[in-house]
Amino acid sequence: MTSIAHERFHAAADEPAYESAAKRIAPAGAAAISLTGLEKSFGTNRVLRGINLHIPAGQFVAVIGKSGCGKSTLLRILMGLDEPSAGELHFEDAEGAQASPNARIVFQEPRLLPWLSVADNVVVGLGDGIDRRAALKATEAVLAEVQLGEKTGEWPARLSGGQRQRVALARALVSRPGVLALDEPLGALDALTRISMQELINRVWRELGFTTVLVTHDVSEAVHLADRVIVLDEGRIALDLPIPYPHPRRHGNPDLAELEGRLLAAILGTGGGH
Ligand SMILES: Nc1ncnc2c1ncn2[C@@H]1O[C@H](COP(=O)(O)OP(=O)(O)OP(=O)(O)O)[C@@H](O)[C@H]1O
Questions:
Q1: Residue 184 shares a structural domain with residue 152
Q2: What are the tens digits of pLDDT across the range 45-96?
Q3: Is the model more confident about 28 or about 228?
Q4: CA of 232, closest atom in ligand 1
Q5: 166 and 192 both lie in a single domain
């Protein structure tokens, strides 16, 4: 499938990815995200401390950091699944007007309904009140995008872990979200499946152009997929690092390895700042 966003992106493929992503025309519905002075406490536990962050529409941001540093809390607040204790969260459309984008999330576990077929699990992502025929057409298209066109009538129990996670991705994508949140979506997969899923996520992002926030423990995954990597440390942004290389990226690229080193140093608190 080729979209306008995809063609424009490739027209600029020899430019640094950071610039290309910013120049790329984000599709209708892709939203910019702005966080100002965002705080979150659970009782006396101050989990997020004054987060200021602007994510342009269509950008792919990865959030990494030590266990418990507040990554999932940040994602839950972005998705409206939790309330901040203080500060502001805004979404903006292409004209800079306040927006309420269609935002979807994929978790580490696929959370499929075992009594529904693959196709019907994806239809769930469209919500109620959609004409059944139109829903199945959209479902077929998105399952083809995630290379599961052959499995529409299959039961989740008969799929591999990677295939189940592709169904979960299809369920999130079927409604053409403007914002996609990914909470360690590949964490339970083996290394090879993980790499092919990374390629898939990168491809659908380039084709569909939604704004993406990925939480991951895998620094290599972050630099491979993202335009920009945020390191959280004790609820603060310790590093905000652009990854200025075109997509798709090759595993084993030494420039990416150098950036991985800086990010790891920032996570471990051994340097690596701006
Ligand atoms: N609902 C909650 N009630 C109380 N404390 C919470 C709640 N959710 C998260 N926390 C606390 O907030 C802190 C940050 O948790 P969070 O899940 O955001 O971290 P994380 O960086 O995503 O961790 P991990 O990498 O291990 O998933 C932790 O100390 C956690 O115990």
A1: no
A2: 999 999 999 999 999 999 999 999 999 999 999 999 999 999 999 999 878 8
A3: 228
A4: 21
A5: no
Same domain, 11 and 96: yes
d(C-alpha 107, C-alpha 185), whole Å = 5
Same domain, 185 and 97: yes
Indicate the top mutation candidate among 40, 44, 45, 215 to test ligand 1's pocket, ranked by most ligand atoms within 8 A of CB: 45
Number of H helices, E strands in the chain: 9, 9
Query: Structural domain tally of the chain?
Result: 2
| Closest by Cα among 74, 97, 90, 83 to 33 | 90
Name which residue sits closest to atom 20 of ligand 1, judged by CA. 68
- Quick one: pLDDT at residue 26? 55
Same domain, 163 and 206: no
The pLDDT confidence band at residue 11, using thresholds 50, 70 and 90, is very low
Domain that holds residue 128: 113-175
Report d(CA 99, CA 102) in Å as an integer: 10
pTM as predicted: 0.88
For the record, the structure tokens of 242 come out as 């652009």
CATH number at residue 205: 3.40.50.300
Residues flanking ligand 1, CB < 6 Å: 42, 45, 47, 65, 67-73
What is the model's pLDDT at position 6?
34
With respect to residue 39, please indicate whether it lies within any of the assigned structural domains: yes
Instruction: Assess whether 122 and 150 both reside in one domain.
Output: yes
Is ipTM over 0.85? yes
CA max distance for the chain: 56
Q: Residue 71: is it exposed, middle or buried by C-beta count within 10 angstroms (0-12/13-18/19+)? A: buried
Same domain, 258 and 167: no
